[in-house]
Amino acid sequence: MENYGKKRSKTLYSFFKPRGETSRGDTPPSNVKVEQPTPNEVESPKSRTQRTGVDYNFLERDPNLHISIQEYPVNLRDEGRRAYIKMGHYQQKLVEYSRTPFGKQYRRFKYGWFENSPWLEYSPSKDVAFCFPCYLFESDIAPHCTLTNEGFTN
Question: Which superkingdom heads the taxonomic lineage of this protein's source (predicted)?
Answer without folding.
Answer: Eukaryota
